[in-house]
Amino acid sequence: MPAGLIALALGGFGIGLTEFVIMGLLPEVAADFQVSEASAGWFISGYALSVAVGALLVTAAVTRLPRKQVLIGLLVLFIAGNFLSAIADSYAAMMIGRIIAALCHGAFFGIGSVVAASLVPAHKKAGAIAIMFTGLTAANVLGVPFGTLLGQNFGWRSTFWAITAIGVVALIGIALMVPKASTEPTKGLRSELGAFKSGQVWLSIMVTILGFGGMFGAFTYIAFTLTEVSGFESGAVPWLLVLFGVGLFVGNFLGGKAADKALDKSLIVILAGLVAVLVFFALTASNSIATLVSLALMGGFGFATVPGLQMRVMHFASTAPTLASGANIGAFNLGNALGAWLGGVTITAGLGYTSPIWAGAGITVAALLVMLAAAAAAAAAAKRRGVAAPAVTPDVEREPREAPVA
Question: What is the pTM of this model?
Fold first, then answer.
């Protein structure tokens, strides 16, 4: 395994920790700044919105710069944002720190995906992307519970000091371990924007929004499902979510392996599996054992799509994958927002605490249909050109191919 992948994964771990650990510390943060829970909640939603914005704007602004230097600069931004959060003496200062840290999120994973893919042979690229995203999944499995425990025992600011330190280590790792030769700049913003002429890029982004939206439609209100339907005590919820995080970790790894063997086919199978899991969960949520199984499988199938979808966007973006890659990271966050909104609508309508799971299943069905259409169009276009469809992940840097929608 190239050492640079480890450094990228560590950066992903720190960024994932920044995004998710605040959820377990909201009561302490709200009490410290003397604001309501709803106001403190903007530290989460404001971060997510900033990720979506930064994924496009920041990535577009740095297209002509060498990618290694960009990654280092993004981690400097990440360190500064978390440092500001750690020392914030007001609600506004904390929010600014959250926004600064969030602006690097989308660009880091977008550019980092391209760099990770460049470090390995063509048949291992999706697996390399999965390794980078392992940091994000590890943040859910290990980082969030221990980060919350640290904040609850030594004050919430101690968690942000720890995240700042992780950022410094990741920066040093990327500076020393990522080869300069693999991180050349792109041809410029016009070249990057040209990637969006591909209908397949847009279809892939749509699958990302709907597929991830389906999982998060079910996951956003999972605490209510676990306590009000499944019968678990509220104190058990954080540890039950570790089970979900383990699913994320395993699914990310296996999804990367599957995408390297058969990109479109693996995504279709995974999305169909996620639909089945969500339907099973909705039907059996009152059974505690079935709920445990569903949590792990929901995380596994939900995150198994990530490396494949990221690789698919990069493939159809041809030789200018950086901005499209960043846009797809923003799409994951748009999916989060879509799923959370629709799940909230179903609860407000009085449909009960399993209704977000049904809503998530419905959104995922839409993702599956779009993916089936995209795969069929790609296969038809490849047949017309007399070449093989993208069953195996190609080298995105050396084999530009276009597969417009039929």
Answer: 0.74
